[in-house]
Amino acid sequence: MSASEASGRRPILPPVLRHRNYTLLWLAMISEGFGGQMTAVAVGWQVYSIHHSPFELGLIGLAEFIPLPLLALPAGQLADRVSRRLLFLASLIGLAGVTVGLLLVSISGAHELWPFLALGFATGVSIAIGTPPGRALPAMVVPFDLISSAMALRSIAFQAATITGPALGGFLFTISPNVVYAAATGMIVIGIVATLMVSEPARVERAEGDDVRGFAALVAGIHFIRKTPVIMGSITLDLFAVLFGGAVALAPVFARTILHVGPIGLGILRSGPAIGALLAGIWIARRPPQRHAGRNLLAVVGAFGLCMVVFGLSHSFWLSLLALAVSGAVDMVSMNIRATAVVVATPDELRGRVLAVEMVFISASNELGAFESGAAAAAFGTVTSVVAGGLLTIGLAAVWPKVFPALARIDRLEDIRPKPVEAVA
Asked: Which parts pass through the membrane (predicted)?
């Protein structure tokens, strides 16, 4: 018994960080996140400086997004056939190559758009290849009862990078954009070294029935999701909640015309969800939810919709900021339950393909959600679209138990067991 346990005190570090392999993976994830967020600041500034075109900024995002749906299925199948550690390592090496390429473009003057588009596409390819194994690896290196905590810490790494990475990148940009790219390369190299130090996780033997090849093997993840209500219900609920309820894309409109807070206030508003998510993630990592996971998922999705209604109706900056922070916190709880449920409900031999499909759902909800928010605001007005989207999200949370009763009945996530893999013709 440790001294902290003998004294009745809770250990400072979450138990999952006592596992060397996971700690190294977590270091790699947070290094990758910081490198990417720092790079995004420099790329955005330099691309806008070429022709002062917001459209070209959108093209960079499109170039990064296109590889995700194109490569999701083959990347998922690859993650189920070869070493996930090596695939994740390959994606980090690809991202390091991108930042080195950006450094060379910056040194040459950064006067043309096409190198940024090409490197943006390469970034999307690396992310598409690395996300399925990166999502699957935590479940391979920690005990089953710590998977929820592992997923929460993974989200903490992302949120910490989202909050502080752009600020650090902006500060370094005032010295030189070359410094940003060099520092980002260094961060990703740290992730590469950490991944190299991870012991190769043991793979579960492929189950009988998972010997299909060709197109059937490629879409096996899709078929498994369709047959598993817990997974289908959780990822589609997240898709529609973000699609209808997301309002952060309209924050500039609220900051300028409703709250009258200017660019500094806009920056604070945009950081609100990440701050709330970070705090919730820390809480989950130390005290993972134990019971009523299905009901909690539906409750926090409904709470997310309520936060959007409050944000849409608010004329107070601080109330709006509080609504966004709470929305980030409850969304973190939702993501943790969904991510853990998907991982534990999927057999290891299909996990890469299932997580690849989930990656497309998440990407689609974020990208299409921003588009839907803008289109609805243009058609019905900003406040009306946000409030209506929040009410729709609350409605989804209310009807989802009828559509996916198995999801609502989940009690302990640790009690979920994957269905056997069946041959998919």
From this structure: 21-45, 57-74, 86-107, 113-131, 152-173, 179-198, 235-255, 261-285, 297-326, 375-400
The packing angle between helices 177-196 and 20-51, to 10°, is 160
- pLDDT score of 424: 41
Q: What letter represents residue 50's amino acid?
A: I
Q: For 69-98, what is each residue's pLDDT tens digit?
A: 889 888 888 888 889 999 999 999 999 999
Residues in the chain: 425
Single pTM value for the model: 0.75
Cα separation, 389 vs 380, whole angstroms: 11
Q: What is the pLDDT of residues 91-138, one digit of tens each?
A: 999 999 999 999 999 999 989 999 999 999 999 999 999 999 988 888
- 29 and 151 in contact (C-beta within 8 Å)? no
Whose structure tokens read 């093209």? 59
How many Cα atoms within 13 Å fall on the side-chain side of residue 399?
Answer: 10
Tokens at residue 2, please?
Answer: 């440790």
- Distance linking the first and last C-alpha atoms of the chain: 53
Closest Cα to residue 23, out of 160, 149, 202?
149
* Domains within the chain, CATH numbers bracketed: 1-203 (1.20.1250.20), 209-425 (1.20.1250.20)
Q: Which residue has the tokens 């003057």?
A: 109
- Measured CA distances, 86 to 190, 234, 250 (Å): 16, 29, 40
Amino acid at 1: M
Q: What is the arithmetic mean of pLDDT over 217-226?
A: 79
